[in-house]
Write a structure and sequence with these properties.
Blueprint lengths: L4 H17 L6 H5 L9 H5 L6 E5 L5 H8 L3 E6 L2 H13 L6 E5 L5 H4 L5 E6 L10 H11 E12 L23 E4 L14 E4 L4 H10 L3 E8 L1 E2 L8 E4 L2 E3 L10 E7 L3
Parallel strand pairs: 1-2, 1-4, 2-3, 4-5
Antiparallel strand pairs: 5-12, 6-7, 8-12, 9-11, 10-11
Helix pairs in contact: 1-5, 7-8
């Protein structure tokens, strides 16, 4: 295990919050005005959430969390960054959703204790979350412990295959099965905005098989695994915009999976 990975990542994400909140990428004014932050396929895949309790792990500033609240869910967002939770709580108040949304500061591995053993109808975790976690089986056990009987995990993520590709989005430049953690030192985050002051971060690569196996090993039943040929931002220069927050390879060119989604149920 890389020493102090949790401290480095928490400090890095604390620094990102102010930059992200002011960025065009996240566009909080548009969200306050009613813009939906979910990918178009997500509500169809998860199904009706009105009246259901939904926990969003690693929620960052809460836009995805609150998008589910706008659909009628009673939501809880959890993130290890106190700065992110403060921003998310303020956003809930600004959008009139504070009566059905709360936000909690906790490392995801300590979520069960932080939430006092509460169980949820839905556990949701979204884009760019799993690379920050070194131990997937432990994460999957936490998810299972947070689900009510018959409850579902809904996971939407960047496809791990994309981590193999070079900057052009065409050539494979990395070993898919290299699971070792990597330490990076980047001056900027992935959005527009000024440089960060705490720049060290640690990430892990998780092959798709490891993710599904961890969920099955925690006793969850896999309902579906969908691989998507589009992503939410122009990660590679070859990608072309195809809709709201949707970018694809040009028609006629070979495609690779860019995102995936999993729904898994805790048996009753």
């Amino acid at each position: 295990m890389i020493e102090d990975w949790l401290r480095h990542n928490r400090e890095n994400w604390d620094d990102r919050v102010a930059v992200h909140a002011a960025s065009e990428f996240y566009d909080l004014p548009a969200f306050r005005a009613g813009e939906d932050h979910l990918r178009p396929f997500e509500p169809d895949e998860l199904g009706e959430v009105a009246g259901r309790s939904l926990l969003h792990l690693q929620c960052h500033m809460g836009q995805d969390t609150l998008s589910w609240a706008r659909r009628g869910a009673r939501v809880t967002g959890l993130d290890f960054s106190a700065e992110a939770v403060r921003t998310a709580s303020a956003l809930a108040a600004d959008t009139g959703l504070a009566d059905r949304a709360r936000f909690v500061v906790s490392d995801v591995y300590e979520a069960e204790a932080a939430l006092g053993g509460e169980r949820f109808d839905v556990v949701y975790t979204g884009i760019g979350a799993l690379v920050w976690l070194p131990d997937l089986p432990r994460w999957a056990r936490v998810v299972a412990s947070l689900l009510a009987e018959g409850g579902v995990l809904y996971l939407v993520e960047f496809h791990p295959f994309t981590e193999l590709l070079g900057e052009d989005g065409k050539a494979v430049e990395r070993d898919y099965f290299d699971r070792a953690g990597e330490t990076f030192d980047f001056e900027h985050t992935y959005t527009d905005g000024p440089p960060l002051s705490r720049t060290v971060q640690v990430q892990w690569h998780h092959p798709l098989g490891d993710i599904v196996t961890a969920l099955a090993g925690a006793g969850l039943r896999i309902d579906f695994l969908h691989e998507h040929d589009h992503t939410m931002w122009p990660r590679f220069p070859v990608l072309q915009r195809a809709g709201a927050r949707e970018y694809r390879y040009p028609a006629g060119e070979p495609r690779v999976p860019l995102m995936f989604s999993v729904r898994a149920t805790r048996p009753a």
